[in-house]
Amino acid sequence: MIKVGDKLPAVKLMEYVDVATEGCSVGPNPVDVAAATQGKTIALFGLPGAFTPTCSAKHVPGYVAKFDELKAAGVDEIWCVSVNDAFVMGAWARDQKTDNKVRMLGDGSADFAKGTGLTLDLTARGMGLRANRFSMLVKDGVVKTLNIEAPGKFEVSDADTLLAQAKA
What confidence tens digit (pLDDT) does each residue in 118-151 have? Predict the structure, then answer.
């Protein structure tokens, strides 16, 4: 399992973009984790699935609400990673009104979740292999803080906890 001081796995996540911008076309675009984190501080959080109750009611909204404070604390970008495809993550971004505050990144084949060891087997509930609920502060691709939730909990991966760590 990944720990503080480790580099993030060298995998690609997928991001759906509704409107083309400079360097980013419409549609699913690969995001090379190593390249995208280089020289940046990333507030990264992972969760079991898009449109799920706790994820939609608390986890994503908390990071959207704390965007300005996280930026003021030195965070360059906020990433949400889930074992969903880019199209689902794009639809969820619209639903959650992330408005370019949170990058909604699909880990469709669970490569990131497996590479970090932060997997959650929800096969018995019909959801297959997913990411555990977690948050981490990443600087230049290296994990600086890591908060992993116990099964069924939402106590340490919230935006307030990561904000306090970013300010420390």
Answer: 999 988 888 888 999 999 999 999 999 999 999 8
Q: Which residues are catalytic?
A: 55
CA-closest candidate to residue 112, choices 32, 17, 18, 16:
32
Query: Residue 20: its pLDDT value, please?
Result: 62
pTM of the model: 0.94
- Supply angle C-alpha 138, 47, 39, rounded to 5: 15
Query: What pairs with residue 145 in β-bridges?
Result: 137
Q: For the domain bounded by 12-167, which CATH number is listed?
A: 3.40.30.10
β-pair partners for 138? 42, 143
Q: How confident is the model at residue 24 (pLDDT cuts 50, 70, 90)?
A: low
Give residues with Cβ within 8 angstroms of 17, minimum separation 6: 24, 25, 26, 27, 29, 90
Q: Where are the domains of the chain?
A: 12-167
Strand ranges (E), the chain: 12-17, 27-32, 41-47, 77-82, 103-106, 119-122, 128-131, 134-139, 142-148
